[in-house]
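Support request, please re-run this one:
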Amino acid sequence: MPATPRSYRGRFAPSPTGSLHFGSLIAALGSFLCARQAHGEWLLRIEDLDPPRERPAAAGAILRTLAHHGLEWDGPVLYQSQRSDAYEQALAALRTDGWLYECSCTRSEIARRGTLGPCGPIYPNTCRNGPREPERQTALRVRTDDRPIGFTDALQGVQRQILADVCGDFVVRRADGLYAYQLAVVVDDAAQGITDIVRGADLLDSTARQIHLQHLLALPTPRYLHLPIAVNGNGEKLSKTTHALALDNRDPTANLGRALAFLGHEPPRELLPAQPQELLDWARQHWNPAAIPRRINIPITDTPVSDTPARS
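Re-run finished. Output below.
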């Protein structure tokens, strides 16, 4: 059963594929400040659903970096690797209601047959009436339709997607048996009673798929705010795959100051030598989501880093 939400409950949900980088800090800080300004809770979830991509020590490194930066979370950390039963229950409900089917298509086959949409290749419904190659391992897809799904993002404004047109039926359990992000995030947000999701705009296109699953599973839809993402000189999102460097925990105040400036809240110069908690106290008092740049991405040229890559 979903937890009973308080007036505001937010969360930060990193994947343990490497250390936190500047782009991660922007998402963590934005969600933290929205929760704290609302006198709400800020939860931490480790999205450890993809063991082949995870680094053994990454989860611990993430917790330490958040602590160094004064970003203290409420309650125990939730690990998705311990949530298989909940995901299976959700799949069973979708199957009972006729929304699931098995799919034997590979990514390369879909790329060849499908039209490219904003979410990637649009699935061409190849296996809707049964797997095309039943001898293969099969993924599970959820059916979509041509009904528009809309929501108003607190920063990016009105959003609308017709899933059948932009992505088609999408995977909720992979052929290798791993649960898909779209399913897990919906189940866990409901279980934790999340009322408000503040995250990077790179996930804006995922939101309609998540709302679709929320509707099918009779789960509440949170409020959404998608922050601008930091991109490098090539226009690429700062990430482990683009070799973003890990945050330097030795200078958390400088890291926080740059992240606040990125989010439209440049702190007074006299606070920059302060301890992280003093800077965060200032940020809580002055936080105004309307001051965040209403953009999908913002190029940056100088970020607080160490010499250690945020490995993927």
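The domain at 84-182 is CATH 3.40.50.620 (Rossmann fold). Residues 81 and 183 are 13 Å apart (CA to CA).
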